[in-house]
Specification:
Rossmann fold; alpha/beta; four-stranded parallel sheet; homodimer
Chain lengths: ~350, ~350
DNA sequence: CTGAAAGCGCTTACAG
DNA sequence: CTGAAAGCGCTTACAG
């Protein structure tokens, strides 16, 4: 708090009942111990025990007295001292492609919320999906002595995460999955199937897919789900109907333009992200193609804007917040040494005007 | 890294050249010192000095040898130990209304970027603009021993920040200003003036304003700028032309509906936020009011979506990223004890189809 | 049930 | 120029 050096005046503290703070900084365990008239170790034990456990360490009278003084003085443990001693920091590092992305911001909110509930603090940073950033930011997090990491930017087939796992570093993935690493994701294959089934049921037969980045399991799984479901219905989606690109509006715009050029206009477009769907709608509008009469459009994620669009967007609701919470809780379980398994959350189809013919 | 207790095997370390790690956890200063054959204090001094300063503390031969071993072993200082000793954590807490909000996510990106450059780490959390959260999250940040705080959720007239300042807590504001507290903001009054000047120059005379939350200086200043500039042009904006509401699309929708009800349709609407502008456009479209022929629309912030809309949006570009950087750097200067002054960044008008008649 | 001691990994006066 | 010591605020065997 104060800029002045606090000096080594630890012994000069009053016996007990001294009510003034003397500007000597935050309350320490020693101050509490002195005021109660007991050893710091006793205070430490009481503070770090539940009501029941505490009984094993101290008389109930002692427990009451300590708790009273702790509350009265507003004691807060110094986390740096505790971390130094216990070798656990209660810190988690989170890497996301970009926090500006509504989807990842929401996932992170879930992570942060669950972390706070568990007394954990998080650092977040953007990797912009660039491998060199992923590596350097991970090392930076590690140098901050995080207990574990959560990646929202996993790249399919990239050995980076394998290397990390081999080093014994604990981490989970959110939003995107990769290999056998523990992850909390939406069941994107199922999501894709829901889209295909809806489109087929409403009479569409030629589906174009804005698949997103080729290194992201999200877009790939959603695409695979559509392809599977169509195949089961006897419809084969040609390769040129699947185009990759960015997950934002400009990315969707470009991908849509490529889609139209290379195969003519389909009767449905599935954008694996709502923002890409907005870009797609822009292109169609520019070309005088009407939605949903000429082309149905489906997005993914059920972003708030989806319902606000001039033509409200049919989309898949994915539990982004819950995904973040699960990713954090999985990591914590791993750190406790418990066996953990990946979580696939259920997607849900939300039908709106963009597919209602 | 490893879950097993690392044990007190500090003395059992090889003399020098021992290349294996023995799983004894991260490299410590002591290991470096032992390998170089020098006292830890010497290593500490060299590590924490610039090239020039180091000369005062050690022979250039010593400096080289230490630097070599530090690099070879990949030594990283334990920040908890250093914080405990120095009483400075290198940690900054950031409170924003909500990270899902593109504007605040971007401001935070700027904060985080500048922090990383300066070797500082940040914690972010959402307050949802609720006073009880602002208080509790601030205390939580303080219990994490942050050196200072950055608030993106300041409420005009709220004594909370005054109380904090009185407690000697160091903080800066971003995005919104409040009282005399140090802040890094866009010059929102100027931004409002730019909007009014453009609207007046293109023949508009009856401007409705979606002013946002009444506790946020952003919306209020932007509104004030419009009112001022209009007054100077001899046009008085009636109070019922100014409506408050949320800064998102639904908020803009509701505010617009109230605006239309209570005073008929204006010939221009200034939404103090791009997302609110999107909501406004939705309402107008539903009612068959055309943009820009019947009503011109202007947003604020120059969000990427603004250019992607069916009717591209005239808006004010505000340097959100730079605002975050400035907020962090101001805080750091304060912590160094330097005199600091608030920063007002220049807004810029971006004219698009929504006002081009 | 409670205390005393050691030690986590650093930094920084204080000596020399 | 370098070393030795103290101490930041905790936790945790180890005694009793």
């Amino acid at each position: 708090m104060s800029a002045q050096p606090v000096a080594q005046a630890a012994e000069a503290r009053g016996t007990f009942g001294g009510d003034m703070d003397k500007g000597s900084g935050p309350v320490t365990l020693r101050m509490i111990a002195d005021e109660v008239g007991v050893n710091v170790s006793t205070v430490s034990r009481v503070i770090n025990s539940s009501d029941k456990e505490a009984r094993r360490w101290a008389s109930s009278d002692m427990i009451d007295r300590i708790r009273t003084v702790v509350a009265a003085r507003g004691y807060q443990r110094n986390p740096h001292a505790a971390s130094l001693r216990t070798r656990r920091s209660g810190l988690v590092g989170v890497l996301v492609p970009r926090l500006q992305d509504f989807v990842l911001a929401t996932v992170y909110e879930g992570i942060e919320e669950a972390a706070t509930e568990q007394g954990i603090s998080t650092f977040v940073t953007n990797s912009l999906d660039r491998p060199e950033n992923q590596a350097s930011r991970t090392e930076l997090m590690l140098s901050r002595r995080v207990d574990g990491l959560i990646f929202g930017d996993a790249h399919t087939g990239d050995p980076f995460l394998d290397t990390l796992a081999k080093r014994g570093i604990k981490f989970t993935l959110v939003s995107r999955r990769s290999g056998d690493h523990i992850s909390a994701t939406c069941d994107d294959i199922m999501g894709g199937r829901l889209v295909a089934e809806h489109l087929l049921a409403t009479g569409r037969r030629d589906i174009g897919i804005l698949s997103g980045r080729d290194y992201a399991s999200t877009g790939n799984d959603r695409t695979a789900g559509v392809v599977q479901a169509c195949l089961e219905a006897g419809i084969r989606i040609r390769p040129e109907r699947i185009v990759h690109g960015g997950f934002d509006a400009p990315g969707g715009r470009q991908a849509t333009e490529r889609l139209l050029v290379q195969g003519g206009c389909p009767d449905a477009i599935f954008a694996t992200n709502d923002f890409a769907a907005i870009g797609a709608m822009g292109v169609l509008r520019d070309r005088g193609i009407t939605v949903p009469d000429d082309v149905a459009i489906v997005g993914y994620n059920d972003t708030p804007l989806a319902a606000e669009l001039s033509i409200p967007l049919t989309t898949i609701h994915s539990p982004m917040h819950e995904m973040g919470r699960a990713g954090l809780n999985l990591l914590l379980a791993m750190l406790r040494g418990e066996p953990v398994e990946s979580v696939r959350l259920a997607p849900e189809l939300i039908v709106r005007a963009s597919t209602a013919s």
